[in-house]
Amino acid sequence: MTQETQHAKSGDTVQIHYTGTLDDGSTFDSSAGREPLQFTLGSGQVIKGFDDGVTGMAVGEKKTIHIPCEDAYGPINPAMMQDVPREQIPDEIPLELGMMLQMQGQAGDVIPVTVANITDDTVTLDANHMLAGKDLTFELELVSVS
């Protein structure tokens, strides 16, 4: 008797090992040394391109997928960038380009922002996702489907 290979489809709960890299080859995330990522296909728990890439994979299969920014975290939205007067940033915060800060939204929610530019008068804060505007590549291995 042969066992039929199970392929991942929408609605399945999958476990997957992955390594995500940018076009410059740098790794931005990986499940190496951790438990595999578990999510339900088609549920919106992961970015569309990742979901699409796992769909149809067989248990034990490994593959590389390339996700354009449109199917990942989207293009950079200029409306998510804001110039703030330098004096509104507390003096005890030493500002550096690329530094992550937290702002408080109007509803009291915490919004992570990145320092995108610093001048004598203003600081540009970027609330776009840190991977917005970037194409992503993932090495995938499907561990299980249930």
Q: Would you write up a description of this structure?
A:
- The protein is mainly β and 146 residues long.
- It contains one helix and nine strands.
- The protein has one helix spanning 48-54; strands at 13-21, 27-30, 37-40, 62-67, 81-85, 100-104, 110-118, 122-126, 136-145.
- The strands form two sheets. Strands 1, 2, 3, 4 and 9 form a five-stranded antiparallel beta sheet that branches. Strands 5-8-7-6 form a four-stranded antiparallel beta sheet, with no helix packed on it.
- The mean pLDDT is 93.
Descriptive key words:
4-stranded antiparallel β-sheet; 5-stranded antiparallel β-sheet; 9 strands; 1 helix; mainly beta; 146 residues
Write the layout of secondary structure elements.
Blueprint: E1 13-21, E2 27-30, E3 37-40, H1 48-54, E4 62-67, E5 81-85, E6 100-104, E7 110-118, E8 122-126, E9 136-145
Antiparallel strand pairs: 1-2, 1-3, 1-9, 4-9, 5-8, 6-7, 7-8
Gist of the model:
By secondary structure, the protein is mainly beta. Helix content is 5%, strand content 39%. Strand 7 (110-118) and strand 8 form a beta hairpin.
